[in-house]
Amino acid sequence: MPTPPVADWVQIADLYRDPFPIYERLRAEGGVHWVPAVGRYLITTYDAVHATEVDQQTFSADEEGSLQIRAMGHSMLRRDDPEHYLERTAWQPTLRPGVVKRVWRSVFERNAARYLDEMVAKGPGEADLIWDFAAPFAAENLREMLGFHNVHQTDLQRWSQTLIDATGNYADDPEVWAKGKRSFDEVDAALDEMLAWHAKHPDHSLISQLIRIPDYRMPIERIRANIKMTIGGGLNEPRDALGVAAWAVLLHPEQRRMAEADASLWPTVFEETIRWISPIGLYSRQTTREVELAGVTLPEGARLGICILSANRDETVWDRPEAFDVRREVKPHLAFSKGVHVCLGNWAARSAVADVALPMLFDRLRGLSLVPERPAEVGGWVFRGMLSMPIGWDAVAPAGASVAVDAARDAAAPALAPRIAIVGSGPAGCFSAQALRRALPAAPLDVIDRLPVPYGLVRHGVAADHQGTKAVSRQFDRLFLHEGVRFVGGVQVDAAGLARLRSSYDAVVLATGLSADAALAIPGAALPGVVGAGAVTRLLNGHPDEADVPSLGRAVAIVGHGNVAMDVARLVARDAADFDGTDVDDAVHHALASDVREVHLVGRSAPGAARFDPVMVRELATLAGVEHVVHDVDLDAVPEGKDARMDAVRALAARSAAAVGDVRVRIHWWFAATPVEVLGADAVEGLRVATPAGERVLDASSVVTAIGFAAGDGCLVEPGAHADGRVEPGLYVAGWLRRGPRGTIPDQRADAKGLAALVLDDLSSGAVAIGRPGIDAFEGATDFDGWRRIDAAETLAAAPGRRRAKLRTLDALRAAAADASIALPEITAVADAGAGDGVPVTILFGTESGGAELIAEDLAQHLSARADVRVVDLADADPDALDASRIHLVVCSTYGDGEVPTAARPFHEALVAGVGGLDGLRYAVFGMGDKSYVKTYSRGSELVDEALAARGATRVGEYGRHDASGPLDVGDVAREWADGVLADAVAAVS
Ligand SMILES: Cc1cc2nc3c(=O)[nH]c(=O)nc-3n(C[C@H](O)[C@H](O)[C@H](O)COP(=O)(O)O)c2cc1C
């Protein structure tokens, strides 16, 4: 491997002024350079930076001769585990998300109101947003969180700046050292005084917390160093994030209007801000051995500058990375770092800036603007932020209304009552209706579907044996039953229909999805016997379009390794007797799959890169009578626990003959295999595939293609052509039509918020006029009561052990919808059915930094009206004392390299050590993780799941997951998951 190239053209002054063009060139030239002006190797690409963050053994934080150690003492930021971990856990309790929410948020609100008033007193044109608001606000918050009751926020500002200056004193300026030393001594003196005070007057602050830790007394010099590090790093991050966010929003009026109209977008503004200009731009690491990184060799002991500002603008990760755009697809940025040093203050910064300061600022200062004659200045590369930001405003709204931005928005919104038609009642259509209802409470909304039944893929796409996922429809029921949204069923909208809707409604949202199976482009793909996975799931779900039921014959080859392929394999291989609690169409299942003995699952990627969710694979591994054969994979290539997908594949192969029982169906797994030709004269006789071991012919009587979805006949717009959701003012797209065939049901909820903001934006800017009449009566349409009759008829007709018997033809659906003799179920019963009434629930949480605990508490509150709920930390739980009369909801994060959180390890170990004893115990799992840990995403929760299952407990409902680096609110996802699980559990026993 070559040594890194030298970038002698890079100068510090240029980096300070504008590092981005320099970083762009460095990334283009490979991403690892020796930069003489800095005396370090600069690491600039996303992948290389990420690789350093997750490997502390090689890329040590404990840098020799570190200036930071000289300036502040040896803090946890310059230590590796286990020492780092010990100190980190001492800091953690004060900064946990639950504590931020319960304790600090009100402090942030008080401080924001105070410094906003002080800034306002300076007057428009005189005030500087950074120095009159952001800096004192951040400093006062930090002072209170630390518990420095003996100093002023200006002391914190001075200490922070001088300690940071000393940390970056590469020029060895004696004056900088002297100022730093003065602050060093001042902090120590103030700290000594406060340590004594807090011993007698404990409160929620960090200093109080440090004195209270039961089993660990941190040596005083470590407390001192870490407090200084917290002062150095904890102030400028929120200050600069707030300043840059305000600047970015003022420079982008359209995005500003969106956030002002919908306060729930401020967190997105915050995340995009710190991706766009990361406040902490660079930190150091040192290699502990010679190592290859991004195609070059770094020597042992190499000093590295990890360029976060650069990684977050990597063009291989983000489109137009230089643009500030809150509507962009969310990808995991590195502004808070990843790995063991992930910013402890991230919850506090998010809350202070995104939940409190930004909404308050824009809500109270009406007409907030930059001052053209005194332009704002931005600078820095180690830390980057606003150097100054003079502002003006037109008027000041009274304090008190300030935090209630939703109320302010709602107060403005009733004036706007556009008529809106949403075409498509699947998840994208219904979530859009939900978001529009919230943003525009007075707007009449019509949701139109070509079928007399609502909910699209929830009814006809989600697998029949995954009823928990289908439970999301219950929240959609509420829209139609209680929130005045009209369901217009049985109306097909073609191009002429769309023109009519456009002239009758002020805004039209197309959410019709992608209904066709993407075609396999190989010879023979048109032979009878080649069917799409979408068609198979529609068939098994009783879709009226699918009249002919083919038999898949004795051997079926499924092309694709995504979750849809896993669904098809499971549905086909599952024994007919094993569908209790589902609404599968038994006759169709029999005709389709009863002859199947061999299934070939053919995917192009290796196991570690396959698209399936490992939990789906593990579910396949539990099917009775199904044997798995994994071909041509070296199962020992990756050690256990390092790659969740590989572990899942290994579990398939390791299944014992006793666990399988009498083999009814054999599933063959083919990885790194590309289909070449479907063989056969008049019908499918085989599938020729290219594998690393050469070409093979798989015996197949049918082929199911599960390689994605495409636009069906009559699609009204080109899918994916309108990425921001707007075709033109007044015409919008949502769901797969907007984003292409990617994203799950919860993703649609996040999209819908953006869509509602876009519509609101067009209405308030006048781009869309209000006043069209809508359409009162659609010819031949059915309504929501019609669906309720269909629902009642289907439920009544259900065979024993089945939830419903779906009506399969349009005529039958229409007849049931119009059948006045069918009594409508009680409205409340429909709205809240299956809410889990009466089933006692224990929520077990396993957490490292408090997120899972917060969600456990949120869930307890959410469920408290319907069930007796207890919340238990896995750290305090005994697996052998779990009460089988209660459902256990396990909410668990992942830590380390795909491990269970530290405090939950004894529980996990005790589970693994025991044998049996948990039969009859029902549990569900919600895994909290971060998808940027590609190989071990949410693995901690899976380990607990596997250990519970191995002891005989039964998992119920869907496997829930939340990706911390994704766009979805964890509370929303968790509540939806819990509702689904409980609905499932109740239905299963009733
Ligand atoms: C040091 C560290 C390691 C992590 N490792 C993983 C991992 O291997 N897989 C994963 O999905 N998430 C990983 N995460 C992300 C966390 O699981 C995620 O942020 C979660 O929301 C934290 O929840 P908690 O606050 O309850 O611990 C890691 C986080 C940290 C700080």
Automatic annotation (TrEMBL):
Flavodoxin-like domain: residues covered: 841-982
Source organism superkingdom: Bacteria
An annotated Gene Ontology molecular function: iron ion binding
Pfam families xrefs: Flavodoxin_1, p450, Pyr_redox_2
Membership in a protein family: Belongs to the cytochrome P450 family.
Protein's name according to its UniProt entry: Cytochrome P450
Organism of derivation: Agrococcus jejuensis
Taxonomy of the source species: Bacteria, Bacillati, Actinomycetota, Actinomycetes, Micrococcales
